[in-house]
Amino acid sequence: MKSILSATIIMLVILTTTNAHAVRIKDLASFEGVRDNQLMGYGLVVGLNGSGDSDQVLIQYQSVVNMLERLGITIPSTSIKLKNVAAVMVTATLPPFAKQGNHLDVLVSSLGDAKSLAGGTLLMAPLKGADNQVYAVAQGSILTNSFAFGGQGASAQKNHPTAGRVPNGALIERELPNTLAGKSVLILNLNVADFTTASRIVTAVNDKFKSSVAFSKDPGSVTLTIPEAYVNRAVDFVAALERLEVKPDVAAKVILNERTGTIVMGEGVRISTVAITHGNLSLVIKETPQVSQPAPLSLTGETKVVPRTDLKVEEESRRLMVLQEGATIGDVVRALNQMGVTPRDLLSILQAIKAAGALQADLSII
Predict the structure, then answer these.
(1) Which of 114, 248, 260, 282 is the one with CA 20 to 30 A from 17?
(2) HSE on the CB side for 77, CA within 13 Å?
(3) Cα–Cα–Cα angle for 32, 131, 140, nearest 5°?
(4) Shared-domain flag, residues 87 and 164
(5) Contact 55, 81 (CB under 8 A)
(6) What residues have CB less than 8 Å from 232, skipping those under 6 apart?
(7) In the 8-state DSSP scheme, what is residue 184?
(8) How many CA atoms within 13 Å lie on the side-chain side of 54?
(9) From the CA atom positions of the chain, what is the Rg in Å?
């Protein structure tokens, strides 16, 4: 088990210490205004097999009465009983440049105390954005990939039956405005702000278009001026720009997860001169109760329980390992692997190296 864990750490280091390759600008940044938008709405799910909201949830009663009134059917809310209806919240994500008539996947989640939405049908539910405008309408059969059955003595459940999806269940009714139309200046926002990466993007863009098209005012964005050759052709300019490759710069960082023993290290991690030794102290205390009683046919004495304690102390002897200044994280892991440390021991060692000021990286514990 120890060798498997050590091999896992070495593989993580190998994966993170290889030379970084160039990455497309498309994968490093996005244009300002080109973003997803969240939609949300309220709806009713019908056709459930007795697994809908109970009588304690009144919201679906009023919703059903209002829906029937819009259909020309008037009925008092006190005279109906609903077991196959559930009130739900419907959510979806509207991608940029989505056109009227396109379809979206929607997520349906129970709002009351329904036991399951399996087999139900979502009725027409308007989906609104943050501006309270309706951008899509959702309707369709719900897929939960789950079930929940039970009685008074036993029950069975698979996955999560009170939430499901309606594939292509929403129809877009309103389009978002085109954020690229008529613009002469575009702003490229980096996914991870970094001075070096922003500078490299500016250099790559200016070299591509043979002019001062790009400049950066901060490490999180690059301002682009559309060249004359691409006036009224913003899509072609963006397509040519996104294909450019840039080598991103990554800060030296070590991520530790003490719950799972996972350790991830970046290639820029360096170690100053430091000496490391790690010895495990094992202390085992075992209590064994024993019974002391008088001899047979004895006229005196009494039976007593006498505790017996076995004490065993073991301390491993480890060599003192010295790491020279400028050692890479691969050198560190190879040295610690020779000492036979486990990933959980490595967590403590890296924290101690950081406390000593010898770890030249940001140590993050999650």
Answers:
(1) 260
(2) 13
(3) 100
(4) yes
(5) yes
(6) none
(7) S
(8) 3
(9) 33
**Do 92 and 49 belong to one domain?**
yes
In which domain, by residue range, is 333 found? 2-17+252-280+317-365
327/353 same-domain check: yes
Residue 79's SS3 state is helix
Does some domain include residue 307? no
Instruction: Check whether residue 95 and residue 159 sit in a common domain.
Output: yes
Q: Is residue 125 domain-shared with residue 184, that is, in the same domain?
A: no
Give the residue among 28, 31, 57 at the shortest CA–CA distance from 45: 57
Handedness of CA 334, 336, 339, 342 (dihedral sign): negative
Closest listed residue to residue 127, CA positions, set 94, 95, 98: 94
pLDDT tens profile 139-198: 999 998 876 666 555 566 677 888 999 999 999 999 988 777 778 899 999 999 999 999
Rounded Cα distance between 265 and 16, Å, is: 6
Beta-ladder partners of 276: 321
Q: How far is CA 308 from CA 285, 293, 294, in A?
A: 10, 15, 19
Is 63 among the domain residues? yes
Average pLDDT over residues 304-333: 62
- DSSP designation for 301: -
Question: Which tokens go with 261?
Answer: 């023993």
Count the domains in the chain. Answer: 3
CB atoms within 10 A of CB 315: 10
Instruction: Tell me phi and psi for residue 179, to 5 degrees.
Output: -80, -10
What average pLDDT does the segment 129-143 reach? 94
* Residues 168, 192 within the same domain: no
My answer on whether 62 and 159 are in the same domain is yes
Rounded distance between C-alpha atoms, residue 327 and residue 79, angstroms: 79
DSSP state of 228: G
| Residue 308 domain flag | no
223 is written with which tokens?
A: 């301002």
Which of 184, 211, 182, 205 shows the shortest CA–CA distance to 29? Answer: 205
On the 0-12 / 13-18 / 19+ scale of CB atoms within 10 A, 28 is: buried
* DSSP structure class, residue 176: P
